[in-house]
Amino acid sequence: MIDYDRTKILLIYGSIIMATKTDAIEFSGGGSFLSANVTAHRVFTREDLSPAQQLFGRIAEDFMSTEVIPREQEIYDKDWALTRELLLKAGELDLLRVDIPEAYDGLGLDKVSSAYVGEKIGVIPSFAGSLGAHTTIGTLPIVYFGNEEQKARYLPRLASGEWVAAYALTEPGSGSDALAARTKATLNADRTHYVLNGQKMWITNGGFADVFTIFAKVDGEKFTAFIVEREMGVVSGREEPKLGLDGSSTTALILDNVRVPVENVLGTVGAGHKVAFNILNLGRLKLGTRNIGSAKQALTRAMHYAVERHQFGRAIAEFGMIKQKLGEMAVRCYVGDAMVYRTLGDVDRALEAVDEKDSERVLKTIKGFAVECSINKVWTSEALAFVVDEALQVYGGYGYSKEFPAERAYRDARITRIYEGTNEINRLIIPTRLLKNSAMAHHFTGQGVQRALDQHPDSSSSSDRLFSAERDLLARAKRLVTFTLGRAKAVYGDALVSEQEVLGHIADITIEVYALESALLRTEKLVTARSVPDSATPIDITRVYASDAADRMEHSAKQVMATLADAGELDPLLDDVRQLTRHKTLNTIVARRRIADSIIKAGRYYL
Fold first, then answer.
1. CB 3.0–4.6 Å: which of 199, 225, 307, 492 could bond 266 by disulfide?
2. Does the annotation mark 420 as catalytic?
3. What is the CATH superfamily name and number for domain 273-422?
4. Distance CA 203, CA 200 (A)
5. pTM for the whole thing?
């Protein structure tokens, strides 16, 4: 394994972070990308990972290849003692400490570093699920909501892997509607303990965790978070027989008169929703790199198989329909990377102005990016679903066999559209939070909608600019969000929150805007650093994505307008939609062939 000198690495890391802090640039989330004119030099991309960040990634990658992958079958056989042993080894390499403050034996590093490590751990999704549940939703509630005594008691043991953490929110009758929880907490007569009674479901690490963040209603009403140790009486149910991630522990928790000291209330009584929703948002922030990392693995394996598999006297990688699959899989991987690292970089830069000890301000800052976090959660999980499905198809009949890797990746990927808030819930979050953003509110008024229709393209954009057509489309697509959301708000008023199909289509348009802009910015930055010929594949990817995104946005906008239009009004509205989504026809068939050829030539996904 890599010779790991923690002190030396942290000194390198600290010097690089200090040298690369961004001055005099303001970053804001909450969908402000819809109105901002962001230039390439202002965004963080994967290519901006520092040597220290890459070194941490290599440590994680080396740990997985030497310690975890050789024990893969034992992990799938549910050897929880082995999983705990591996978590301890991860702790020795500081892979569990990244998000924990230095004062409590952590590293207190940035979100980019944390997410990048998570991507490397994701080579075995089951183990990544165990480690990720421990370091993110298991540990971060105490990092951000614990008092000094709680942090001192729990965080050093969680940082080392001596104790394993879990997060217990979901119940048999409350999933997305978390506040409908029925687990009760009753203060005992001498006011020293809360007595918890109820049941939790789908708890990752449930079979072997030592410490749980458990949500219950005090007196049946006040939704509250508690730090609960297993020895206080928590009993695990059976291991759930799952579709995927079968090498991670998922159980119910039975809480039968579990006695929790009053000092183990996390945050304040009645404020459990703040813990629950902030922690889920943090989970979404970092989930994207794991999703895209898994997609890259699936693409690389499918490409290798396509090169080795011969039919009709040729490698199937030479056939057009296989190239179309490989090319589009590469498009999803590249665009996904652009999106998630852009958001992570913006969050880290916003946090530079915040005292890390001020947990309330840190969480408020991250919450400001809830729109972007939901966008990334939805987009990357659905990109992963597409890639693993197409990868299995490349394998043909062998893809359906458990003796080949495609079927496990297919099964493991399915949960990503459900946990950390279902994609349906996240689609509702996107437009509703846009409407709540006071800085954006004027865009969705009648005047704002009219301006979106009347506005002409920026005359300063040159027709000989590399991405002039795509930039023009992006500008109009941003106005399309204003047009559709503003019009929907005008028609439905406050009742819009109940029009889920309309909100879902508007969310899809917004998601496409963020994805398209992120891809453009990443590629423009690459071209500046390299040259146009050296960036040929990213340029192809960006243009292919723009072309297809325009069609998808037009489809969604048409559905919205058909719902909102009065009699005789639809045709003019559809004309407006077509004006906002028009784009130059691109030969995407040939472009995808070139993209696939570049991946085949490299022997792996390399971007």
1. 225
2. yes
3. Butyryl-CoA Dehydrogenase, subunit A, domain 3 (1.20.140.10)
4. 7
5. 0.94
